[in-house]
Amino acid sequence: MPHPTRQEVYEMFLNLANPPNGIDEFYKWFHPDVKYVVPGHGRFTGTFERKEDYYNATWAKFRPILRSPGFKFIISGGIDGVLTAEDGWAVVIMQTVDTVTLSGVPYDQHYSWHCKFNEEKKVIECRAYLDLGYLEDVLGTEMTKQGIK
């Protein structure tokens, strides 16, 4: 089976526009042993060797500090925000919209996710690039307000 097409990657990431259920649908595309890397410095960076480890270190901590429905993403430029290569790599440019902390602070983040797919069309490696200072300022501060470490 070949790697996913640009359209398939686009449709996969479109799930992130429909929280909270879309996020769960999105992560069905990830292999359980995905290598997930958030490069940089700070408490929200690191290398995670399993989907569950990444989820618990990030999404599970962030969901309770956001107003319903939580994280909502759009793909910047629609399908033009998705690039794919024959070797299974894809790059997706996204941003959050309508994402607000419990304290009422908007979280307007921009992301570049670089994902490597296997031939079963599962993500086996993902690198997320984002403004970590902004993440700390908004979500880190909210976690502190809510007593979450």
Describe this structure in words.
By secondary structure, the protein is α+β, with helices and mostly antiparallel strands. It contains five helices and seven strands. It has helices at 6-14, 21-27, 51-57, 59-62, 132-145; strands at 30-38, 46-48, 73-75, 82-84, 89-96, 110-117, 123-130. Strands 1, 2, 3, 4, 5, 6 and 7 form a seven-stranded mixed beta sheet that branches. The longest helix has 14 residues, at 132-145. It starts with 5 loop residues before the first helix and ends with a helix.
Main pleated sheet: 7 strands, mixed
Helix content: 25-40%
- The run of helices and strands is HHEEHHEEEEEH
Overall SS class: alpha+beta
Strand content: 25-35%
The strand count comes to: 7
Low-confidence stretches: none
Report Rg. 15 Å
N-to-C CA distance:
42 Å
- Globally, the shape reads globular
Give the mean pLDDT. Answer: 95
DSSP helical segment count: 5
